[in-house]
Specification:
With 268 residues, the protein is of the alpha+beta class. The chain contains eight helices and 14 strands. It has a domain of 127 residues: Cytidine Deaminase, domain 2, CATH 3.40.140.10. The protein has a six-stranded mixed β-sheet, with helices on both faces. Strands 4-3-6-5 form a four-stranded mixed β-sheet, with helices on one face. This is Sulfur carrier protein FdhD.
């Protein structure tokens, strides 16, 4: 069964108090259940595209597997919504406990005490390298490119957009109703196609929450650009993990919140 990323629906729209019956487009969402070695491990609500990439990105970033070569077989059944994953090894029976266990920690190089999930501590990377440098103009150009390519968002207003880019332009873009899903789709594609992340930037349409910054750290990118706002905890984590965060990129203005040395302030 093939699904479209948007669905047509007849609605009643009021404009200046007047009623109009019109056709509108809404974002499509479907449940995706992942089975590993025959065992159900998670059900995600997702947009109906790039499902295999999303699952691979999720499994690696959440620590179910350490690399994509641990997967022997992956099969997506669109009709049932199941993704069947066969691993070369047995699934760690304690991994689910790590997924849900919180603890006060200084792991991931974090000197500030903060509640995080144990699985996050296992897979998060500290970005000590300085391989990516951007000018303010490049940041704004990349954000404009993301928004120009956000077709499903323009049609429905109900999805998040994420892209992988170099300073010269977008390399890969993904859309999903779930913020995490969009990033997992990027990461899964890179893992499956051996696309290097060393010189890449994440561009994101939504708010920079702590979970999004942690996901970027798991993917292994030094810089994240957003048109929206960060949270204080997201910035604390970004600072500790040495990730450059840039927010509110709009109308020729932007805010650099953490690790500003990756932004070349001497150029336009």
């Amino acid at each position: 069964m093939a699904y479209s990323k948007q669905t047509n629906r007849t609605i009643v729209r009021f404009v200046n108090g007047k009623e109009h019956v019109v056709e509108d487009m809404v974002a499509t969402e479907i449940p995706i259940t992942v089975k590993i070695n025959g065992e159900e491990v998670v059900t995600m609500i997702s947009s109906p595209d790039h499902i295999e990439d999303m699952v691979v990105g999720y499994l690696v970033s959440e620590g179910f597997i350490v690399s994509v070569d641990k997967i022997m077989h992956l099969r997506y059944e669109a009709a049932s919504g199941f993704v069947h994953v066969t691993l070369k090894q047995a699934l760690n029976p304690f991994h689910h406990q790590l997924q849900t266990k919180r603890y006060l920690t200084s792991c991931c190089g974090m000197s500030r005490q903060s509640f995080i999930f144990a699985a996050d501590a296992k897979t998060t990377k500290t970005m000590k390298t300085r391989n990516v440098f951007l000018s303010p103009t490049e940041c704004m150009t990349l954000m404009n490119e993301l928004q120009a390519g956000a077709t499903t968002f323009k049609e429905t207003g109900g999805v998040h957009n994420a892209a992988l880019a170099t300073p010269s332009g977008i390399v890969l873009m993904r859309t999903d109703i779930g913020r995490h899903n969009a990033l997992d789709k990027l990461y899964g594609y890179c893992l499956r196609h051996q696309l290097s992340l060393e010189d890449k930037v994440i561009i994101f349409s939504g708010r920079l929450s702590s979970e999004i910054v942690l996901k970027v750290a798991k993917i292994g990118c030094e810089v994240i650009l957003s048109k929206s706002a960060p949270t204080n905890r997201a910035l604390e984590i970004a600072e500790e993990l040495e990730i450059t965060t840039v927010g509110f990129i709009r109308h020729q203005s932007m805010n650099v919140y953490t690790v500003p040395e990756r932004i070349n302030r001497s150029s336009g």
